[in-house]
Amino acid sequence: MEELTLTTPAVLFSAISLIMLAYTNRFLAYAVTIRDLHSKYLKKKDQVLMAQIQNIKQRLYLTRSMQIFGISSLLLCVLTMFLIYIKQQTFAIWVFGTALILLIISLGLLIKEIQISVKALEHHISDIENN
């Protein structure tokens, strides 16, 4: 096995940072949507709004999990760099592998969240097509 160097985990910094920026933008968009749904629900309490609220709630929690796994991955990349620096190569390899797994989980959750988002938009499209 080839030795793990400081540059290997450092390469993930920019990728994880961009992913985290995308996740944060999703989170902020949900915050705006939730505030809008809240004001609509206070005016008119109907089942369609409740379904939208449940959908956005599920997506919000998925986004939170995506962020947690992404941040944990970044944290473990930093720890990997420290372990390489103090010459703990074997432990660094295991920590870096764990960081990669956390990043994979985060991206997997993103796929699930996108599928839920598309279903929500399909409901809106069907409403338009039916009217």
From TrEMBL:
Membrane-spanning segments: 12-34, 66-85, 91-111
Taxonomic superkingdom: Bacteria
Name of the protein described by the UniProt record: Uncharacterized protein DUF2721
Keyword Membrane found: yes
Organism in which the protein naturally occurs: Mariniflexile fucanivorans
Record Pfam families: DUF2721
Record key words, sorted: Membrane, Transmembrane, Transmembrane helix
Keyword Transmembrane helix attached: yes
